[in-house]
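Your task
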Amino acid sequence: MKERTLIILKPCCIQRCLSGEVISRFEKKGMKIIGIKMAHLSKEQAEYHYNEHKGKSFFNFQVRHITSNPVILMVLEGDNVIKLARNLTGATNVDEALPGTIRGDFVLHTPINIVHSSDSIINANKEINHFFKEDEIFSYEKALDNWI
């Protein structure tokens, strides 16, 4: 079943020049980019995005961090894409992020984990609608789709 998910390459990913490597990992897995843009998130957008963590000790840090510099926002599409993208990103806690995952290979400190990946269909739809307008998401066929 085709699903969609939101990926955010956080400011530290861009600052460390890892964006191409991270995007490449999703593409090489067979996920299709159907929306991509760079944006400087407002405090309001960040607070909405992290709303479920409001009141937790790391909430203000996350808001400050994700609004400190531009991010890259992507909508990916594919079969079981939410679970597969989360497997590629790895555990949020750097101590549990396995080598070969994005966080396992590139993250030293848990609060600065370089990438966000939606955790459910409900959250993916909410997050995609929060950051993308309908005309910023594209539908297209890839010749490669039959080989994946």
Residues 19-29 form the longest helix (11 residues). The chain has a mean pLDDT of 94. The helical segments are 11-15, 19-29, 43-49, 59-66, 81-89, 102-106, 121-131. Residues 61 and 111 are 8 Å apart (CA to CA).
